[in-house]
Design goal:
Blueprint: E1 9-13, E2 18-22, H1 28-31, H2 34-45, E3 59-63, E4 77-82, E5 89-94, H3 98-104, E6 109-113, E7 120-125, E8 128-133, H4 142-153, E9 159-162, H5 165-168, E10 176-178, E11 182-184, H6 189-195, E12 198-204, H7 214-229, H8 232-240, H9 244-250, H10 267-270, H11 275-279, E13 282-286, E14 296-300, E15 310-311, H12 316-324, H13 331-344, H14 348-363, H15 382-394, H16 398-402, H17 406-413, E16 423-424, E17 427-428, H18 437-445, H19 460-463, H20 466-473, H21 483-504, H22 521-532, H23 538-559, H24 571-575, H25 590-604, H26 615-619, H27 624-632, H28 642-645
Parallel strand pairs: 1-6, 7-12
Antiparallel strand pairs: 1-2, 3-4, 3-6, 4-5, 7-8, 9-10, 9-12, 10-11, 13-14, 14-15, 16-17
Helix pairs in contact: 2-21, 2-23, 7-22, 12-13, 12-14, 13-15, 18-21, 21-23, 21-25, 22-23
């Protein structure tokens, strides 16, 4: 008997409309579930010659292994494929209710291959998958598409993930939206879903997920739910959602301002974006499945240019994206911009980044109104931002250029605009980096391109005492305060732990990523052991996390050819220091970055010259098959020529 899982991966060939299920039991010990199993199967079945929008690409959906067990914060869905930006690993994750409904419907994973000739949506319920016509809603917003699906299925109590007009038109900065508010952002997976002719997937189930020791699990659920309710992070998120993070980062001079011209917004201006300024528009508070924290706040705008607008959730990212990055200090505009992105199926991080790039190019005279469909791109002009979001979603005029993301957009515009295209591995950067070194390293080396939700570490590095840092990250107490020295161990720890959390389906906000009073690997192992019915150590979970991370790394080496040269911050952040605030003068120093990278690669056992895994490092994780593939293609870290990769 398989506990925690339904033991079903459903392969759906969209070209033939045939389905086939296969067991996943053998993969669970090494890769857990969710992201881990998605990534291993992608590595095994997707060849290097296949591009993101090819019919031969696979789009994988995986519910975390603890989803459906009632474990606190176990609600996450991992979505994995090839990145629309670089053909390396494309990976996203969302909360909400879809993952739980998918498992209750009888499936742990859905793998989409091929391409439907006509637009469809998939209706998944109690072991059945129906192909439904989506021609009439193909270019509609996610809100209208969801309403249509609920009417047509006659079921209001289901969960839906969908793409908006941006994904239907293959804008690379498109994402997948869950139940109108949850975004699986980054990597352009909304466009990948659009390339397969799939508008949405609706799920509803009545089944149960079996656990081995229900009474013991219930006791641990009560214990950890109570613990999470009383953490400092949970308390603040319960009141304000995630919005306070933006102001906290600004206090460290770690805020993207005007396309990274600076990383600090003046105190009097950031105060206009304070949590209290948003809370006046809050209408009610919601939570993802099995969450004791409840960080989702619903907002309604009562007056002004966005009167009547209803937004189901505003994230801290939105304050960065549409507040500081574009120099907008009007909270209703930030709320409205996030809502428009949810409706259009746009990754708000990518959308704001490419708009910020365009505004700087306009400021510098590289772009004029003849390029921008007559729009004057001025900092702080939220009406122009709304117009651009619509153009991007419809791929209309200048919006078609912007929808490609900053790297491709700058290559098309040329004329020196590439200097202001801030990206890593081809994916738009949203995160400030100059003042927080461990945070910065984690973002730069992330396999999915610029992203802080893999190995980056922010506030916890300031909260953990030096003596605790040794047991957690292997640091000598004397070096724990040296940000460059400390970064490699910290990043490796969170890479492993985040891989575990994604694969078990646990929200990051339940973990010590945000503070030392939340769950550590030992706590997660305790929950998992009760559900699985056998003792699982924290060390074995972290080893699984290392295994998953190495598979992703190998995928990137094989498919995108990424090496050491791709693990650096954008040049702007290494040449232009922070101009103001407490962190004035902070910069990422080239020689210190080299030292961090060296330590980081060695911590994983990878070749420090190339950044590629070696046979020894992969064999220690039981990934000999992965090593064989890399060797056959001449990309194993044991052999290299420095001139090719630096």
């Amino acid at each position: 008997m398989v506990y925690c899982a339904q033991n079903k991966l459903l392969k759906i060939d969209l070209s033939t409309r045939k389905t086939e299920s296969e067991p996943i039991e053998e993969l669970i010990p090494d890769f857990l579930g969710g992201r881990g199993i998605n990534q291993k199967i992608l590595f095994d079945r997707v060849g290097p010659g296949i591009k993101a929008f090819d019919a031969g690409n696979v789009l994988a959906f995986g519910a975390g292994l603890l989803v459906g067990t009632l474990a606190p914060c176990a609600n996450r869905l991992s979505i994995d494929s090839k990145s629309a930006f670089n053909d390396g690993i494309g990976s996203a994750n969302m909360g909400g209710h879809f993952a739980a409904e998918l498992k209750r419907a009888g499936f742990d994973h859905l793998f989409l291959t091929g391409r439907s000739e006509e637009p469809v949506y998939l209706w998944v319920h109690d072991g059945v998958v129906e192909f439904r016509d989506a021609s009439g809603i193909w270019s509609e917003t996610t809100v209208k598409a969801e309403a249509h699906i609920r009417r047509e299925t006659g079921n209001d109590d289901l969960s839906i993930i969908s793409i908006g007009p941006a994904g239907a038109r293959l804008a690379r900065i498109a994402c997948i939206i869950g139940d109108g508010a949850r975004a699986a952002g980054r990597c352009g997976l909304g466009a990948v879903m659009g390339s397969k002719g799939v508008k949405a997937i609706a799920a509803k189930g009545t089944g149960k997920v079996r656990v081995a020791q229900p009474e013991l699990l219930k006791a641990r659920i009560r214990e950890y739910s109570e613990k999470l309710r009383h953490t400092a992070g949970a308390k603040i998120r319960g009141i304000f959602g995630t919005i306070p993070a933006a102001k906290a980062f600004n206090a460290w001079s770690a805020t993207p301002f005007r396309n990274f011209q600076d990383e600090y917004m003046a105190e009097d201006r950031i105060a206009e974006l304070a949590p209290e300024a948003f809370e006046k528009y809050a209408e009610k508070r919601l939570a993802c499945a099995f969450c004791p924290i409840g960080c989702q706040h619903v907002y309604r705008i009562p007056d002004g240019p966005y009167k009547g607008l209803l937004c189901s959730k505003v994230e801290a990212n939105a304050v960065w994206d549409f507040g500081t990055k574009l120099d907008i200090t009007y909270p209703p505009a930030v709320i409205a911009a996030q809502q428009r992105c949810c409706e259009y199926g746009l990754d708000m991080d990518g959308a704001s980044s490419v708009i910020a790039w365009a505004m700087e190019c306009f400021e510098r005279g590289i772009l004029t109104t003849s390029d921008t469909d007559g729009l004057e791109l001025r900092w702080g002009d939220h009406a122009v931002v709304m117009a651009l979001l619509g153009k991007i979603a419809r791929r209309e005029g200048f919006g078609k250029v912007l929808g490609e993301g900053v790297k491709r957009a700058s290559e098309e515009v040329g004329n020196g605009s590439e200097t202001f295209a801030v990206h890593i591995k081809g994916q738009d950067l949203i995160e400030p980096m100059r003042s927080l070194k461990a945070w910065a390293l984690g973002i730069a080396v992330s396999p999915r391109g610029a992203a802080h939700t893999r190995g980056a570490a922010g506030s916890i590095t300031r909260l953990i005492p030096p003596e605790k840092a040794k047991s957690m990250w292997g640091l000598d107490p004397g070096k724990a305060k040296d940000p460059y020295e400390a970064a490699p161990g910290i990043v490796k720890y969170f890479e492993q732990f985040h891989a575990v959390l994604d694969s078990l389906g646990l929200c990051f906000f339940s973990s010590n990523w945000l503070g030392p009073d939340a769950l550590f690997p030992e706590d997660v192992a305790s929950l998992f052991s009760a559900a699985l019915g056998k003792d699982v150590s924290a060390a074995s979970l972290m080893l699984a996390g290392e295994r998953i991370h190495n598979v992703e790394k190998a995928f990137n080496v094989r498919h995108a050819g990424f090496s050491r040269k791709d693990d650096y911050p954008p040049e702007r952040l290494m040449k232009e220091p922070v101009k103001s605030g407490p962190g004035k003068g902070e910069i990422l120093k080239k020689e210190e970055w080299e030292r961090m990278l060296e330590g980081y690669y060695r911590s994983h056992g990878w070749n420090p010259e190339t950044g590629w895994p070696t046979r020894e490092s992969l064999a220690q994780l039981g990934l000999q098959d992965v090593a064989d593939v890399l060797k056959e293609e001449g990309r194993l870290g044991d052999r290299y020529r420095t001139s090719e990769v630096r």
